[in-house]
Amino acid sequence: MAADDTINTAEKLIEGILAGRVPRQVRLFAAQGLLPVSREDLFRLQLVLSADPDPELAATAASSLSEVSARVLIDWIRNQPIDPLELDLLARVREEQEIWVAVAQHRNVGDETFRMLASHGAETIQDVIITNQVRVLGCLEVLEDLKANPQVSQVVLRRVREFEEEFIEKAAAEVAQAPDSQEMQEEAARASIQGALEALRAIGAHIPKEEEFPFAQDSDLSLEQKVLAASRSTLSKLLDMSVKEKVFVAMRGSREERGILINSRNRLVMRAVLASPKLNDGEVERFAGSKSVSDEVIRVISGNNKWLRHYPILLAVVQNPKAPVQKAIRLMNQLSRRDINRLSMDRNVNPIIRRQAKNRLEKMQR
Protein backbone atom coordinates (compact mmCIF):
# COMPACT_ATOMS: atom_id res chain seq x y z
CA MET A 1 0.00 0.00 0.00
CA ALA A 2 1.59 3.31 -1.11
CA ALA A 3 1.61 6.39 1.14
CA ASP A 4 -0.65 8.30 -1.24
CA ASP A 5 -3.20 5.50 -0.96
CA THR A 6 -3.43 6.07 2.77
CA ILE A 7 -6.88 5.23 4.13
CA ASN A 8 -8.14 8.45 5.68
CA THR A 9 -10.29 7.14 8.50
CA ALA A 10 -9.02 6.04 11.91
CA GLU A 11 -11.25 2.98 11.84
CA LYS A 12 -9.82 1.66 8.61
CA LEU A 13 -6.30 2.63 9.63
CA ILE A 14 -6.62 0.65 12.85
CA GLU A 15 -8.05 -2.24 10.89
CA GLY A 16 -5.10 -2.02 8.51
CA ILE A 17 -2.58 -1.81 11.36
CA LEU A 18 -4.03 -4.92 13.02
CA ALA A 19 -3.82 -6.71 9.67
CA GLY A 20 -0.21 -5.56 9.15
CA ARG A 21 -1.05 -3.67 5.93
CA VAL A 22 -0.16 -0.09 6.88
CA PRO A 23 3.40 0.97 5.86
CA ARG A 24 5.85 2.07 8.53
CA GLN A 25 5.99 5.71 7.42
CA VAL A 26 2.23 6.12 7.83
CA ARG A 27 2.37 4.41 11.22
CA LEU A 28 5.24 6.67 12.25
CA PHE A 29 3.28 9.81 11.29
CA ALA A 30 0.38 8.58 13.39
CA ALA A 31 2.68 7.75 16.32
CA GLN A 32 4.15 11.24 16.15
CA GLY A 33 0.71 12.85 15.94
CA LEU A 34 1.26 14.17 12.41
CA LEU A 35 -1.69 12.62 10.61
CA PRO A 36 -4.56 15.00 9.69
CA VAL A 37 -7.21 13.31 11.82
CA SER A 38 -9.16 14.42 14.88
CA ARG A 39 -7.49 14.40 18.29
CA GLU A 40 -9.75 11.57 19.44
CA ASP A 41 -8.89 9.44 16.39
CA LEU A 42 -5.22 10.19 16.94
CA PHE A 43 -5.46 8.85 20.51
CA ARG A 44 -6.96 5.62 19.18
CA LEU A 45 -4.26 5.20 16.56
CA GLN A 46 -1.47 5.91 19.01
CA LEU A 47 -2.86 3.41 21.51
CA VAL A 48 -2.86 0.60 18.95
CA LEU A 49 0.59 1.67 17.80
CA SER A 50 1.90 1.50 21.37
CA ALA A 51 1.89 -2.27 20.79
CA ASP A 52 3.51 -2.03 17.32
CA PRO A 53 6.02 -4.77 16.41
CA ASP A 54 8.57 -2.00 15.75
CA PRO A 55 9.93 -1.09 19.23
CA GLU A 56 11.01 2.41 18.15
CA LEU A 57 7.62 3.19 16.67
CA ALA A 58 5.81 1.75 19.72
CA ALA A 59 7.95 3.90 22.02
CA THR A 60 7.15 6.98 19.93
CA ALA A 61 3.42 6.35 20.17
CA ALA A 62 3.61 5.79 23.93
CA SER A 63 5.71 8.92 24.34
CA SER A 64 3.16 11.00 22.42
CA LEU A 65 0.38 9.71 24.63
CA SER A 66 2.39 10.44 27.79
CA GLU A 67 2.39 14.12 26.87
CA VAL A 68 -1.41 14.32 26.88
CA SER A 69 -2.82 15.60 30.17
CA ALA A 70 -4.65 13.08 32.34
CA ARG A 71 -7.71 15.34 32.42
CA VAL A 72 -7.98 15.37 28.61
CA LEU A 73 -7.74 11.58 28.47
CA ILE A 74 -10.29 11.13 31.26
CA ASP A 75 -12.76 13.42 29.47
CA TRP A 76 -12.22 11.37 26.31
CA ILE A 77 -12.78 8.09 28.15
CA ARG A 78 -15.97 9.33 29.78
CA ASN A 79 -17.50 10.76 26.63
CA GLN A 80 -16.52 8.34 23.87
CA PRO A 81 -17.49 4.73 22.97
CA ILE A 82 -13.88 3.54 23.12
CA ASP A 83 -12.96 0.06 21.95
CA PRO A 84 -12.11 -2.50 24.70
CA LEU A 85 -8.61 -3.11 23.32
CA GLU A 86 -7.87 0.63 23.30
CA LEU A 87 -9.00 0.91 26.93
CA ASP A 88 -6.62 -1.88 27.88
CA LEU A 89 -3.69 -0.31 26.07
CA LEU A 90 -4.43 3.06 27.63
CA ALA A 91 -4.35 1.54 31.13
CA ARG A 92 -0.92 0.12 30.31
CA VAL A 93 0.54 3.25 28.75
CA ARG A 94 -0.84 5.59 31.43
CA GLU A 95 -0.79 4.20 34.98
CA GLU A 96 -2.28 7.19 36.84
CA GLN A 97 -4.95 6.00 39.25
CA GLU A 98 -7.50 8.53 38.01
CA ILE A 99 -7.12 7.18 34.48
CA TRP A 100 -7.45 3.61 35.74
CA VAL A 101 -10.65 4.59 37.55
CA ALA A 102 -12.11 6.01 34.33
CA VAL A 103 -11.11 2.86 32.42
CA ALA A 104 -12.64 0.58 35.09
CA GLN A 105 -15.90 2.55 34.93
CA HIS A 106 -16.20 2.49 31.12
CA ARG A 107 -19.02 0.29 29.85
CA ASN A 108 -16.75 -1.23 27.18
CA VAL A 109 -13.92 -2.32 29.46
CA GLY A 110 -12.95 -5.90 28.61
CA ASP A 111 -12.93 -8.72 31.13
CA GLU A 112 -9.17 -9.09 30.79
CA THR A 113 -8.61 -5.39 31.53
CA PHE A 114 -11.14 -5.36 34.37
CA ARG A 115 -9.31 -8.26 35.98
CA MET A 116 -5.89 -6.70 35.43
CA LEU A 117 -7.03 -3.54 37.20
CA ALA A 118 -8.47 -5.62 40.05
CA SER A 119 -5.17 -7.47 40.43
CA HIS A 120 -2.94 -4.38 40.44
CA GLY A 121 -5.07 -1.34 41.29
CA ALA A 122 -4.90 0.62 44.53
CA GLU A 123 -7.81 0.86 46.97
CA THR A 124 -9.67 3.45 44.89
CA ILE A 125 -9.70 1.11 41.89
CA GLN A 126 -10.68 -1.84 44.06
CA ASP A 127 -13.64 0.12 45.43
CA VAL A 128 -14.81 1.09 41.92
CA ILE A 129 -14.69 -2.54 40.82
CA ILE A 130 -16.48 -4.16 43.78
CA THR A 131 -19.13 -1.41 43.69
CA ASN A 132 -20.03 -2.23 40.07
CA GLN A 133 -22.09 -5.31 40.94
CA VAL A 134 -23.62 -5.77 37.50
CA ARG A 135 -20.13 -5.89 35.94
CA VAL A 136 -18.85 -8.24 38.64
CA LEU A 137 -21.80 -10.56 37.99
CA GLY A 138 -20.62 -10.84 34.40
CA CYS A 139 -17.05 -11.63 35.45
CA LEU A 140 -17.02 -13.39 38.81
CA GLU A 141 -13.35 -14.24 38.35
CA VAL A 142 -12.58 -10.66 39.36
CA LEU A 143 -13.43 -11.50 42.98
CA GLU A 144 -10.41 -13.82 43.20
CA ASP A 145 -8.29 -11.17 41.48
CA LEU A 146 -9.23 -8.63 44.13
CA LYS A 147 -8.38 -11.05 46.93
CA ALA A 148 -5.00 -11.79 45.33
CA ASN A 149 -4.12 -8.09 44.98
CA PRO A 150 -1.25 -7.41 47.45
CA GLN A 151 -2.69 -3.92 48.01
CA VAL A 152 -6.22 -5.08 48.76
CA SER A 153 -7.83 -3.30 51.71
CA GLN A 154 -9.71 -5.02 54.51
CA VAL A 155 -12.81 -3.02 53.58
CA VAL A 156 -12.73 -4.36 50.02
CA LEU A 157 -12.07 -7.90 51.26
CA ARG A 158 -15.12 -7.65 53.50
CA ARG A 159 -17.25 -6.44 50.60
CA VAL A 160 -15.98 -9.26 48.41
CA ARG A 161 -17.04 -11.79 51.06
CA GLU A 162 -20.44 -10.12 51.39
CA PHE A 163 -20.90 -10.23 47.62
CA GLU A 164 -20.00 -13.93 47.55
CA GLU A 165 -22.46 -14.77 50.32
CA GLU A 166 -25.28 -12.82 48.69
CA PHE A 167 -24.56 -14.33 45.29
CA ILE A 168 -24.62 -17.91 46.59
CA GLU A 169 -27.89 -17.28 48.44
CA LYS A 170 -29.45 -15.77 45.34
CA ALA A 171 -28.16 -18.50 43.04
CA ALA A 172 -29.39 -21.22 45.40
CA ALA A 173 -32.84 -19.62 45.52
CA GLU A 174 -32.98 -19.42 41.73
CA VAL A 175 -31.94 -23.04 41.29
CA ALA A 176 -34.56 -24.11 43.83
CA GLN A 177 -37.28 -22.19 41.97
CA ALA A 178 -36.19 -23.12 38.46
CA PRO A 179 -33.76 -26.07 38.49
CA ASP A 180 -33.36 -26.03 34.72
CA SER A 181 -32.56 -22.31 34.50
CA GLN A 182 -29.41 -21.79 32.53
CA GLU A 183 -28.19 -18.63 34.21
CA MET A 184 -29.17 -15.79 36.49
CA GLN A 185 -31.29 -13.01 35.04
CA GLU A 186 -28.73 -10.28 35.70
CA GLU A 187 -26.16 -11.76 33.32
CA ALA A 188 -23.97 -8.95 32.04
CA ALA A 189 -22.57 -8.99 28.53
CA ARG A 190 -19.08 -10.45 28.64
CA ALA A 191 -16.68 -8.12 26.90
CA SER A 192 -13.44 -9.79 25.86
CA ILE A 193 -10.38 -8.45 24.07
CA GLN A 194 -8.96 -11.90 23.42
CA GLY A 195 -9.62 -11.75 19.69
CA ALA A 196 -8.03 -8.30 19.37
CA LEU A 197 -5.00 -9.44 21.36
CA GLU A 198 -4.58 -12.43 19.06
CA ALA A 199 -4.74 -10.10 16.05
CA LEU A 200 -1.96 -7.95 17.53
CA ARG A 201 0.23 -10.91 18.36
CA ALA A 202 -0.32 -12.32 14.86
CA ILE A 203 1.59 -9.35 13.41
CA GLY A 204 4.35 -9.64 16.02
CA ALA A 205 3.07 -6.94 18.36
CA HIS A 206 4.04 -6.77 22.03
CA ILE A 207 1.47 -5.67 24.61
CA PRO A 208 2.90 -2.76 26.64
CA LYS A 209 4.04 -3.74 30.16
CA GLU A 210 2.60 -7.23 29.87
CA GLU A 211 5.26 -8.54 32.25
CA GLU A 212 4.50 -5.79 34.76
CA PHE A 213 0.71 -6.10 34.42
CA PRO A 214 0.07 -9.64 33.16
CA PHE A 215 -3.40 -10.75 32.17
CA ALA A 216 -5.01 -12.85 34.89
CA GLN A 217 -4.72 -16.58 34.34
CA ASP A 218 -7.29 -19.00 35.73
CA SER A 219 -5.33 -21.84 37.27
CA ASP A 220 -7.13 -24.26 39.57
CA LEU A 221 -4.59 -27.06 39.87
CA SER A 222 -6.55 -29.03 42.45
CA LEU A 223 -9.54 -29.13 40.13
CA GLU A 224 -7.39 -30.08 37.14
CA GLN A 225 -5.79 -32.92 39.08
CA LYS A 226 -9.18 -34.28 40.16
CA VAL A 227 -10.53 -34.15 36.62
CA LEU A 228 -7.46 -35.98 35.30
CA ALA A 229 -7.69 -38.57 38.08
CA ALA A 230 -11.35 -39.19 37.23
CA SER A 231 -10.34 -40.11 33.65
CA ARG A 232 -13.72 -38.96 32.38
CA SER A 233 -13.76 -36.84 29.21
CA THR A 234 -17.23 -35.58 30.14
CA LEU A 235 -15.73 -33.88 33.19
CA SER A 236 -12.97 -32.08 31.27
CA LYS A 237 -15.56 -29.50 30.19
CA LEU A 238 -15.47 -28.17 33.76
CA LEU A 239 -11.97 -26.80 33.22
CA ASP A 240 -13.11 -24.54 30.37
CA MET A 241 -16.11 -23.09 32.21
CA SER A 242 -16.29 -19.61 33.69
CA VAL A 243 -16.71 -19.30 37.45
CA LYS A 244 -20.39 -18.53 36.97
CA GLU A 245 -20.92 -21.64 34.85
CA LYS A 246 -19.14 -23.78 37.45
CA VAL A 247 -21.35 -22.31 40.18
CA PHE A 248 -24.52 -23.41 38.42
CA VAL A 249 -23.12 -26.85 37.58
CA ALA A 250 -22.17 -27.20 41.25
CA MET A 251 -25.74 -26.39 42.25
CA ARG A 252 -27.74 -28.43 39.76
CA GLY A 253 -25.21 -30.90 38.34
CA SER A 254 -24.53 -34.53 39.11
CA ARG A 255 -23.03 -36.03 42.25
CA GLU A 256 -19.85 -36.75 40.28
CA GLU A 257 -19.59 -33.12 39.17
CA ARG A 258 -20.05 -31.93 42.75
CA GLY A 259 -17.37 -34.36 43.87
CA ILE A 260 -14.94 -32.74 41.43
CA LEU A 261 -15.96 -29.10 41.95
CA ILE A 262 -15.68 -29.29 45.76
CA ASN A 263 -11.91 -29.37 45.14
CA SER A 264 -11.94 -25.99 43.41
CA ARG A 265 -9.92 -23.36 45.19
CA ASN A 266 -12.45 -20.74 44.10
CA ARG A 267 -14.57 -19.93 47.15
CA LEU A 268 -17.73 -19.29 45.13
CA VAL A 269 -17.56 -22.66 43.38
CA MET A 270 -16.86 -24.52 46.62
CA ARG A 271 -19.68 -22.74 48.45
CA ALA A 272 -22.03 -23.48 45.54
CA VAL A 273 -21.39 -27.21 45.94
CA LEU A 274 -22.24 -27.00 49.64
CA ALA A 275 -25.37 -24.95 48.86
CA SER A 276 -26.65 -27.39 46.25
CA PRO A 277 -30.23 -28.57 46.94
CA LYS A 278 -29.15 -31.96 45.58
CA LEU A 279 -26.40 -32.44 48.16
CA ASN A 280 -26.99 -35.35 50.55
CA ASP A 281 -25.53 -36.31 53.93
CA GLY A 282 -23.36 -39.02 52.38
CA GLU A 283 -21.61 -36.48 50.17
CA VAL A 284 -21.11 -34.08 53.07
CA GLU A 285 -19.60 -36.90 55.14
CA ARG A 286 -17.19 -37.69 52.32
CA PHE A 287 -16.20 -34.03 51.98
CA ALA A 288 -15.77 -33.69 55.76
CA GLY A 289 -13.40 -36.64 55.79
CA SER A 290 -11.37 -35.54 52.77
CA LYS A 291 -7.82 -34.31 53.25
CA SER A 292 -7.73 -32.77 49.76
CA VAL A 293 -10.52 -30.20 50.11
CA SER A 294 -9.72 -26.69 51.30
CA ASP A 295 -9.84 -25.54 54.91
CA GLU A 296 -12.85 -23.44 53.92
CA VAL A 297 -14.89 -26.55 53.07
CA ILE A 298 -14.27 -28.04 56.51
CA ARG A 299 -14.99 -24.69 58.18
CA VAL A 300 -18.35 -24.38 56.43
CA ILE A 301 -19.34 -27.96 57.26
CA SER A 302 -18.27 -27.56 60.90
CA GLY A 303 -20.45 -24.47 61.16
CA ASN A 304 -23.61 -26.18 59.92
CA ASN A 305 -25.56 -27.56 62.90
CA LYS A 306 -27.97 -29.45 60.66
CA TRP A 307 -25.14 -31.48 59.16
CA LEU A 308 -23.46 -31.99 62.55
CA ARG A 309 -26.58 -33.75 63.85
CA HIS A 310 -25.50 -36.58 61.55
CA TYR A 311 -22.95 -38.44 63.71
CA PRO A 312 -20.66 -39.69 60.88
CA ILE A 313 -20.27 -36.08 59.66
CA LEU A 314 -19.50 -34.84 63.16
CA LEU A 315 -16.87 -37.56 63.59
CA ALA A 316 -15.32 -36.84 60.18
CA VAL A 317 -14.99 -33.14 61.05
CA VAL A 318 -13.23 -33.85 64.37
CA GLN A 319 -10.87 -36.28 62.66
CA ASN A 320 -9.98 -33.91 59.84
CA PRO A 321 -6.70 -32.05 60.59
CA LYS A 322 -8.08 -29.03 58.70
CA ALA A 323 -10.98 -28.55 61.12
CA PRO A 324 -10.91 -25.39 63.30
CA VAL A 325 -9.24 -26.60 66.49
CA GLN A 326 -11.57 -25.00 69.04
CA LYS A 327 -14.62 -26.19 67.13
CA ALA A 328 -13.26 -29.73 66.93
CA ILE A 329 -12.55 -29.76 70.67
CA ARG A 330 -16.13 -28.72 71.43
CA LEU A 331 -17.54 -31.32 69.06
CA MET A 332 -15.46 -34.01 70.75
CA ASN A 333 -17.87 -33.81 73.71
CA GLN A 334 -20.48 -35.49 71.52
CA LEU A 335 -18.31 -38.45 70.49
CA SER A 336 -18.58 -41.94 71.89
CA ARG A 337 -15.89 -43.24 74.21
CA ARG A 338 -14.81 -45.71 71.54
CA ASP A 339 -14.23 -42.93 68.99
CA ILE A 340 -12.42 -40.75 71.53
CA ASN A 341 -10.14 -43.69 72.23
CA ARG A 342 -9.43 -44.03 68.51
CA LEU A 343 -8.69 -40.32 68.25
CA SER A 344 -6.18 -40.54 71.10
CA MET A 345 -4.13 -43.02 69.07
CA ASP A 346 -4.67 -41.65 65.54
CA ARG A 347 -1.50 -39.93 64.31
CA ASN A 348 -3.35 -38.58 61.27
CA VAL A 349 -5.47 -36.16 63.32
CA ASN A 350 -4.39 -32.78 64.62
CA PRO A 351 -1.87 -33.34 67.49
CA ILE A 352 -3.88 -30.97 69.67
CA ILE A 353 -7.03 -33.03 69.10
CA ARG A 354 -5.15 -36.24 69.84
CA ARG A 355 -3.85 -34.79 73.12
CA GLN A 356 -7.30 -33.53 74.07
CA ALA A 357 -8.72 -36.99 73.36
CA LYS A 358 -6.13 -38.56 75.69
CA ASN A 359 -7.01 -36.05 78.43
CA ARG A 360 -10.70 -36.81 77.96
CA LEU A 361 -10.06 -40.54 78.27
CA GLU A 362 -8.08 -40.05 81.49
CA LYS A 363 -10.97 -38.10 83.00
CA MET A 364 -13.41 -40.83 81.97
CA GLN A 365 -11.27 -43.47 83.69
CA ARG A 366 -11.13 -41.66 87.05
Describe this structure as you would to a colleague.
- Helix 5 runs parallel beside helix 7 (97-105), helix 7 (97-105) runs parallel beside helix 9 (123-131) and helix 17 (267-274) runs parallel beside helix 19.
- Among the domains are: 107-217, no CATH class; 220-279, no CATH class; 292-366, no CATH class.
- Helix content is 63%, strand content 0%.
- Residues 1-7 have low confidence and may be disordered.
- The protein is elongated, with a radius of gyration of 27 Å.
- The longest helix has 24 residues, at 154-177.
- The chain is mainly alpha-helical and 366 residues long.
- It has 24 helices and no strands.
Q: Report how far the terminal alpha carbons are from each other.
A: 97 Å
Question: What series of H and E elements makes up the topology?
Answer: HHHHHHHHHHHHHHHHHHHHHHHH
User: pLDDT below 50 for ≥5 consecutive residues: which ranges?
Assistant: 1-7
Q: What is the number of helices?
A: 24
Number of strands: 0
Q: How big a fraction of the residues is strand?
A: under 5%
In which range does the helix fraction lie? 55-70%
Would you tell me the structural class of the helices and strands?
mainly alpha
Mean pLDDT: 89
Main sheet overview: none
* Anisotropy-based shape: elongated
Radius of gyration: 27 Å
What's the oligomerization state? single chain
Give a concise summary:
This protein is mainly α.
SSE topology sketch:
Elements (H helix, E strand, L loop, with lengths): L9 H9 L5 H9 L6 H11 L5 H12 L3 H10 L4 H10 L3 H9 L5 H10 L2 H9 L1 H6 L2 H8 L5 H24 L16 H9 L18 H10 L12 H10 L2 H7 L5 H8 L6 H9 L5 H8 L2 H4 L2 H9 L5 H7 L5 H9 L5 H15 L1
Helix pairs in contact: 1-3, 2-3, 2-4, 3-4, 5-7, 7-9, 8-11, 9-12, 12-15, 12-17, 15-17, 17-19, 18-21, 21-22, 23-24
